[in-house]
Amino acid sequence: MSRGRDAALGDIKSRIADRLRQGIAAGTYGPGDPLPSTNELAADEDAAPMTVRAAYAMLISEGLVISVPRKGFFVRETLAMTWHMNAWQDPRRLEKVPLDGWTADVEAAGFVGRQTIEVRMVTADHCIGGHTLGELLDLPAGEPVAVRGRVRFIGRPENGGTEPESIADSYYPYALIRDTAITRPESVNTAAILTELGAALHHYDDELIPRLATQAEAQQLQLPPSTAVLEIIRSGYTSEGRPVLIQHMIRPGQGSRFIYHVSYPETDER
User: Fold this and answer.
1) pLDDT for residue 65 is more than 90
2) Which residues pair with 236 in a beta bridge?
3) Alpha-carbon distance 101 to 87, whole Å?
4) Less crowded by CB within 10 Å, the N or C end of the chain?
5) Confidence of residue 87 (pLDDT cuts 50, 70, 90)
6) Can you tell me the distance from the alpha carbon of 148 to that of 169, in angstroms, rounded to the nearest whole number?
7) What angle is formed at CA 34 by the lines to CA 31 and CA 40, rounded to 5 degrees?
8) pTM to 2 decimals?
């Protein structure tokens, strides 16, 4: 008897969640809009308030809804964007953020952005994405590596950069940048500094790994459980093919698009 009752309650919960989900998808409830109260839905659906709250919990876990204490439930505002992953295809984007064009894409979408910066030290034995930094930067085991750890935030102009958008950690051989501003937790043009050091960035390789966010990443980026992320390992090289920078990015999926421009070298047609 209890099992049948639990199944019935599950059906009601799913029906309520589906109704709200469809309303959000159809635009009946737009980003930031309040959703019906627990008591309103309970009366409309002839359901217990506890069942309605369980339906809302489903939508919160999917990233569609947020709960605001003492105010109710609201449609979560989406900050999904189009990210142009080729930094130096457009000189204007190169001036904004030389490595990945992040600031330019944020501004193009009508948002504002900010980032926190923390500088720390690891060794070449440190692993990211299944690789050691020694493999990626061609360094011997134990060699010191400087990390510029960043969390990036975006938001609408009226609210400021309040929502975590990505984790973007940059790794440099410490012996290369030890006496530069790269080792300080402040915004600097790292590409220009590398150029001054005779290690100008010429090209990069990207490794893309779609996966679920780890618990730590979900907490840092304020993501619902089981959220898909795109892990990007970007290796920056000089014109001689020397690796001088590794950027490790974690970006939530949540509807964002990632665009690459791929060009082919000129070839003789025979």
Assistant:
1) no
2) 204, 245
3) 5
4) C
5) low
6) 6
7) 145
8) 0.72
162 is written with which tokens? 């309040």
**pLDDT tens track for 139-179:** 999 999 999 999 999 888 887 878 888 999 999 999 999 99
In the 3-class helix/strand/coil scheme, how is the chain assigned residue by residue?
Answer: CHHHHHHHHHHHHHHHHHHHHHHHHHCCCCCCCECCCHHHHHHHHCCCHHHHHHHHHHHHHCCCEEEECCCEEEECCCCCCEEECCHHHCHHHHHHCCCCCHHHHHHHCCCEEEEEEEEEEEECCCEECCEEHHHHHCCCCCCEEEEEEEEEEEECCCCCCCEEEEEEEEEEEHHHHCCCHHHCCCCCCHHHHHHHCCCCCCEEEEEEEEEECCHHHHHHCCCCCCCEEEEEEEEEECCCCCEEEEEEEEEECCCCEEECCCCCCCCCCC
Phi, psi of 132 (to 5 degrees): -90, 155
CA–CA dist 85, 259 (Å, integer): 6
> Between these two residues, 88 and 132, which has the higher pLDDT value?
132
* Predicted pLDDT of residue 161: 79
| Poorest-pLDDT segment among 85-89, 90-94, 223-227 | 90-94
Residue range 2-27: average pLDDT? Answer: 78
Residues with Cβ within 8 Å of 90's Cβ and at least 6 positions away in sequence, in order, are 84, 101, 104
At 183-217, the pLDDT tens digits run 999 989 898 999 999 999 988 899 999 999 999 99
